[in-house]
Amino acid sequence: MDFEYRYTSDQELFRKEVNDWLDANVPEGMKPHFASDAAHMDKETFRWAKEFRQKFGEKGWLFPTWPKEYGGGGLTAEHDVIIQEEVSKRRLPGFRPSELMPAAVMVWGDEDQKQRFVTPTLEGKRDLYQLFTEPGAGSDLASLKTRAVKDGDDWVINGEKVFVGTHHGYKNGPDSEPEIDEEVDEMFTLAITDPDAPRHRNMGYFMIPGDAPGVTYQTLDLLADWGKLQIYLDNVRVPNDRLIGGEGQGWQVAQTSLELEHGGGGQIVQRDHPTLRFLELASETGRAKDPHYQQTMMDAYIDSEIGRLFGLRNYWMYESKQEMSYHGSQAMLWRKESVLRIADATRDVLGLEALVDLDDPKVKFDGELEHFQRDSLVWAHPGGTIEVQKVIVARRLGVSRTKERAATTPSTAGKQ
Ligand SMILES: Cc1cc2nc3c(=O)[nH]c(=O)nc-3n(C[C@H](O)[C@H](O)[C@H](O)COP(=O)(O)OP(=O)(O)OC[C@H]3O[C@@H](n4cnc5c(N)ncnc54)[C@H](O)[C@@H]3O)c2cc1C
Hints:
Elements: H1 9-25, H2 43-58, H3 77-90, H4 100-108, H5 111-122, E1 128-131, E2 147-151, E3 154-164, H6 180-183, E4 186-192, E5 203-209, E6 215-222, E7 225-239, E8 243-244, H7 250-264, H8 273-284, H9 291-319, H10 327-350, H11 368-378, H12 386-397
Parallel strand pairs: 1-4
Antiparallel strand pairs: 2-3, 3-7, 4-5, 5-8, 6-7
The chain binds flavin-adenine dinucleotide.
């Protein structure tokens, strides 16, 4: 039996439209970019990606299935699949803004907030940072210390956030580094509004403009770059209409963002380039002829494929508005654990060739395999660690002390 999905002729025409547009808007010979290597993006590329994001947003292709009235494409999931397939083949520098804040505002914000924060993001006119983690509050996020104090119609926010996302090219030297307000337009954060209220009822979810006075930062040099920042909020003043949800509802609002960050929205293409590179180099060097290495390579490929299929299943469940449970964290847990196994397999089969870095004249694939070795370790943390994903899966399956349901997302809003 042939299970291959066949696209309709209309869908193939749409694919051609996407490709023609990409041919016209992506410079020929553009260097392929690794998914997480933001720290090496030069200023020129960063600015190109920003402009490209806006043009892509104008087409409605940044968030194809989101409602047109809020800047989305109003298109079908099939259109989305085609767009993402074609974009992923080109390995463009990161340009898509995060959907984590727009999702939370769609569920918890008022109409004015949806127009002010969601619409420009979906149109590609805004980039976003998530300011949740603090030096003493990562896995145990509810222990955060950042404080928001009401002052008339404003909130005054003080605190410190860490591991904040960026596209900075700071590894190329100070001249390459865009200023933070060039890079980010909005930051969404959690801050304690009532220290006397019970845990999980004591914080608000705030939007902070990227150029707000009192925001300073320093770059963090992580094992696999990722271009992360430590951000300091020093008497940062925001009006009350930048509070999403109620004064004590921030934890619930953040759960919507986190549900998607944990993989609840799924993933269409997980074109696992490091694994494909690994298999390619193993063939090139003749190691793929060894039966023992063949086993190791196939285990790695199967690990990678299972991750892709989890992502697809979740995408289908999300787009068809099904109630989700452990599925997001299951996919993320698989990905985090399997990249460690795949990195081990790469070293077992390729030996030192898996570790040849950019500074070595013998480097292959722009150092992607060596970068993957470091990346696989760093991957264990963003969006909740391996242990945290296990706790979530256990709670949702009801095999933990507590039983919980998935947080509401735009997909399930109004159904629970
Ligand atoms: C590359 C990268 C990108 C990131 N991007 C962002 C971002 O854009 N915005 C943002 O807000 N944050 C971001 N983060 C932060 C990320 O969410 C945190 O690193 C993560 O939640 C873990 O927190 P922590 O680093 O403080 O580790 P800790 O919470 O201190 O954990 C340390 C270790 O202890 C384990 N552990 C902790 N508690 C338990 C428990 N109860 N049971 C069992 N084991 C436990 C953890 O699993 C981990 O192995 C990013 C992190 C990285 C590395």
